[in-house]
Amino acid sequence: MTDRLDRARSTGILAVLRASSPELALEASEAIIRGGVTGIEVTFSTPDAPAVIRELIARHGDAAYVGAGTVTTAAQAAAAADAGAEFLVSPGTLPHLTRTMLDTGRVVMTGAMTPTEVMSALELGVDVVKIFPASLGGPSYLGALRGPFPDAPLMPTGGVSPDNLAAWFAAGAVAVGAGGDLANGASIAASDWADIEQRAGRFAAALTAARG
After folding, report:
1. What pLDDT sits at residue 4?
2. Could you identify which of 59, 74, 185, 200 might form a hypothetical disulfide with 37, taking C-beta atoms 3.0 to 4.6 angstroms apart as the criterion?
3. Is the per-residue pLDDT at 20 higher than 60?
4. Quick check: 29 and 60 in contact, CB under 8 A?
């Protein structure tokens, strides 16, 4: 599992990308990458998400860590894998869907919030447990989960910002998912790529500082 998580660990931040069109998703991704964040989670709430994933991989290759998010069906998992997604993320942990995601051979990250849900995800064999919505408990909650799950790869998503990034990693995050504070919906809708790039720059700087 360590080898499978090397890319997630080294990337550190996954930008959770939601856009109203493939074109906006691609432009937003490019701005995020220019800003220094190279982990891109293209959610299935974005139209034609597999095409966006395929194009980003064609443009950036190994220089970006590109995967699919908001995977809620087996068909989505298969489509994302066929597009070359390196990782698959689901907001929850449904046994049948999780097994289908695991069968693709991609890195699998599924959502949980309570200790019981974390145990269920780990029992199924996911690579990363996505703590979502992490804003409900903050870094202190992630730290508390470290008590019963000291070795579990946990990725908080929701409520992550440059200001608290160091606290999440200090609490034991293997990586973080960053949504609105990074891939800001209003800025994407307005095609304000300078703002998106600046947001990514702040996240990238915060990650460098957190890693000392």
Report:
1. 83
2. 200
3. yes
4. no
